[in-house]
Write a structure and sequence with these properties.
This protein has about 240 residues and is α/β, with parallel strands linked by helices. The chain has one domain (about 5-240): P-loop containing nucleotide triphosphate hydrolases (Rossmann fold). The protein is about 35% helix and about 25% strand. It has eight helices and nine strands. It has helices at about 45-55, 75-80, 95-105, 110-120, 135-145, 165-180, 190-200, 220-230, and strands at about 5-15, 20-30, 35-40, 60-65, 80-85, 155, 185-190, 200-205, 210-215. The strands form two sheets. Strands 5-6-7-3-8-9 form a six-stranded mixed β-sheet, with helices on both faces. A hairpin with a 1-residue loop joins strand 8 and strand 9 (about 210-215). Helix 3 (about 95-105) crosses helix 4 (about 110-120) and helix 3 (about 95-105) packs parallel to helix 5 (about 135-145). It starts with 6 loop residues before the first strand and ends in a 10-residue tail after the last helix. The relative contact order is 0.17.
Length: about 240
């Protein structure tokens, strides 16, 4: 029996007028991988994640999640969860109400709301309006909303922004636990040190994929130097070594 890759990006390109955000991106991700996505600002990372999640239509190529088009998945809640920007949460909703909308959208039992509040440590502010929460608290609510259905594929864009050390550790354990279960996670971040803790594979991009391979080893300073050199010499990739 043929096993489909969790995610496939085939010659994906995206242009905004004269600006090229993505150029012929090829990527295949298998079940149980945690892919760390690196690149400078403006490298197309968020655009790539938007294409993958079905909220941005590519100019060229196609994206597939378990062989399906991301925007029309048969079971979207159980298949694909994404947290791209906590600023997009409805500020007038209370946390409990937001989770209730997620449960309804994903077709989960009503009791899932109470379970999620306890599981994700939201009880202290479950009845507060989202607009009154700190950046880290909103980030945690956004993550809880997408994790509530335990999706097979989880896509995170800068998930540690605003999180305190305890919350970063909490998220790290969630990601590592997903990998151990054979689930798939993609994490875009500028925090190389944290990515190295959770990723099984690293992808570096600057409108196109410059590196796709093992997580680099060495000290944090050495890896930062490797990354800086890599994105700075995209036409001389053969000279860049781990």
């Amino acid at each position: 029996m043929t096993v489909l890759p969790t995610i496939e990006l085939r010659s994906v390109g995206k242009r905004y007028g004269a600006t090229t955000a993505l150029e012929t991106v090829e990527l295949s991700i298998e079940p149980g991988e945690c892919v760390g996505l690196l690149g400078p600002n403006g490298a197309g990372k968020s655009t790539l994640l938007g294409v993958l999640c079905g909220i941005i239509r590519p100019s060229d190529g196609e994206a597939r999640v378990y062989g399906q088009t991301p925007g029309v998945l048969t079971e979207p809640g159980a298949t694909l969860g994404f947290a791209l920007d906590p600023a997009g949460l409805h500020g007038e909703l209370r946390v409990r109400e937001h989770l209730r909308t997620e449960v309804l959208a994903q077709g989960l039992p009503a009791g899932s709301v109470a379970e999620a509040i306890l599981k994700f440590g939201l009880d202290a502010y479950a009845d507060r309006k989202i607009r009154t929460l700190s950046t880290g608290q909103r980030q945690r609510v956004a993550l809880a909303g997408v994790l509530i259905g335990d999706p097979a594929v989880l896509v995170l864009d800068e998930p540690t922004n605003g999180l305190d050390i305890e919350a970063v550790q909490w998220l790290r354990q969630i990601i590592l636990g997903r990998t151990a279960q054979g689930l798939t996670t993609i994490v875009s971040s500028h925090n190389i040190a944290e990515l190295r803790r959770v990723a099984t594979r690293m992808v570096v991009m600057r409108t196109q994929v410059l590196y796709d391979g093992p997580v680099p080893v060495g000290s944090d300073d050495e890896v930062e130097q490797w990354y800086t050199l890599f994105v700075g010499v995209s036409r001389r990739r053969d000279e860049v070594v781990l």
